[in-house]
Amino acid sequence: MNDITKQLLEMISDYNGEFNGAYNIREDGQCAARQSSENIKIESKQDAPGLVIHIKPFTKGEKVFIPACVTKSGIDDLVYNDFYVGQGADVTIVAGCGVHNSGEEEARHNGIHRFFIEKDANVLYEEKHIGTGEAEGLRKIDPVTDIELGENAKLTMDTVQLSGVDQTTRTTRGVLGDGARLIIKERIMTDGREQAKTDFYVELKGENSGVDLMSRSVARDESYQEYHSVIKGMNVCTGHSECDAILVGNGKVSASPQLDAEHPDAALIHEAAIGKIAGEQLLKLRTLGLTEEEAEQKIISGFLK
Amino acid sequence: MLKLENITWSLEDGRGILNDVSLEIPDSKLVVITGPNGGGKTTLAKTVAGLITPESGKIIFDGQDITELDITQRAKLGISYAFQQPVRFKGLTVRDLLELAAGRELKQPEICELLGKVGLCKNDYIDREVNASLSGGEIKRIEIATVLARNTKLSIFDEPEAGIDLWSFAGLVDVFKEVKNKINGTLMIISHQERILEIADEIVVISGGKVESSGSAQEILPKLIKGSRAPRPCERS
């Protein structure tokens, strides 16, 4: 494992020389280290690059780390990871991605993650993306997340990407069974000429299923972001999406939330707000003794927390 | 001491809001600014805090001319301002805001004490975002707590009663009574409420952009109460 990977691991996951749980570290398209645990089995996928991860039913309080790092120019890494989470399990999955590019060519990681979550299981899925390196070569991360939630299963996805990634297209799809819950918290900050596209598609198929989708983003400088969400209510269900964006400098944001109610008892809500930092927020923090720049920085860091 | 000398300010359409206001606010007193709506009270408070720049006149704070200083500089000199309509922040928690106000990290007991002073149960609020989920009364109390957290020489409260229900308001009067006893600084409260006027040391009546009268509470309050109960000309038979 090279030094850049170690630095990236510290930024994207709780790495401090080791992981406390099962793990697989992917470096430039290869496996750099792997360890399964009694309840969490990590194996190579047979038909494509990637992993198959089995979490035994009723596994409680365990963590699995599957960070992926790209540390040089000219790498185009594509990986398929499948997670099978057994009935009643309660686990945390940490799947960060770091791309470092110090050359002229592109460096890209494209992770396709599929989750099959059985009845009553509860998963916290953390995903942190970062780009580093000063070179001309583009840093790209294009994650795809497919989620199938069984009866009364719950997945909370906490996803963060704060600067450094030149281009990203983030696709998340979910299909929910009876009583299932999907909670997604996304925070994105783009600066320079970065572009970020984010796409959510959630089918509320099961009775009393529910999704809560919160996206907060800051577009600075000349950067551009697109947000698109579709929530399909196909049963008695609740869907809520909230998309807030702050514009700084010449940042641009396009948001198009879509709600499709296909059942008379589908209750779907969307809230969206895009704009500069409210002048009165700056005024309030200045009356507490902060300068305008300090106030702006506090408002943004709180917003993306 | 805060001294205003010949302050004038008008709206873009030319309507005068403050017309040559001169005023002295002594140290360590609770001064209530009162008067009819639209009389210029909030504008006066904002002028002191630096949110509004007067067209002419001078503001002297502790002997220093602060007329040209901006909001941040005045805050650092020891002027605090509680907004009449508190600002909401997506993402900043009550703890964040109180720590920004205090200018340092606060220990749990310190936050509890601040929230307790404004009648909020600490555990329900410390990690709550100061966003639209808070009621008008809750956010108003948090706003007041941010000013208490600063503990400055001059604290201005712009209509603390606005947006608070009557039951909660009684508790708030007690807060100001307590603050008056505990802090060394000057409290300047803009209010219409008789119960706040009753705890004042000094009262200033602003009407039509001018100081109509000012003096000790014993002197001014009876006149105000009498005035408010006298029938208006159009009501006379």
Q: From the coordinates shown, what is the CATH architecture of chain B?
A: 3-Layer(aba) Sandwich
At the fourth level of CATH, the homologous superfamily of chain B is P-loop containing nucleotide triphosphate hydrolases
Count up the helices of chain B.
Answer: 9
Tally of individual helices of chain A? 3
Beta fraction of the residues of chain A?
over 45%
How would a crystallographer describe the biggest sheet of chain A? 10 strands, mixed
- What is the total domain count of chain B? 1
Indicate the overall shape of chain A: globular
Number of domain units of chain A: 1
List the secondary-structure elements of chain B in sequence, H or E: EEEHEEHEHHHHEHEHEEH
Structural class of chain A: mainly beta
Oligomer class = heterodimer
Order of helices and strands of chain A: HEEEEEEEEEEEEEEEEEEEEEEHH
Beta percentage of chain B is 15-25%
Taking the sheet with the most strands of chain B, its summary is: 6 strands, mixed
Attribute tags:
heterodimer; A: 305 residues; mainly beta; 10-stranded mixed sheet; 6-stranded parallel barrel; 3 helices; 22 strands; globular; B: 237 residues; alpha/beta; Rossmann fold; 6-stranded mixed sheet; 4-stranded antiparallel sheet; 10 strands; 25% strand
Write up what this structure looks like.
The complex is a heterodimer of chains A (305) and B (237). Chain A has 305 residues and is mostly beta strands. Chain A is built from three helices and 22 strands. In chain A, the strands form two sheets. In chain A, strands 3, 4, 7, 10, 12, 13, 15, 17, 19 and 21 form a ten-stranded mixed sheet that branches. In chain A, strands 1-5-8-11-9-6 form a six-stranded parallel beta barrel. The longest helix of chain A is centred in the last third of the chain and has 12 residues, at 292-303. The mean pLDDT of chain A is 92. With 237 residues, chain B is an alpha/beta fold. Chain B is 37% helix and 25% strand. Chain B has helices spanning 41-49, 71-77, 94-102, 108-117, 122-125, 136-150, 166-182, 194-197, 217-229; strands spanning 2-10, 16-25, 30-34, 56-61, 64-65, 79-82, 154-158, 186-190, 202-207, 210-216. Chain B has a six-stranded mixed sheet with strand order 6-7-8-3-9-10, sandwiched between helices. In chain B, helix 3 (94-102) runs parallel beside helix 6. The longest helix of chain B has 17 residues, at 166-182. Chain B starts with a strand and ends in an 8-residue tail after the last helix.
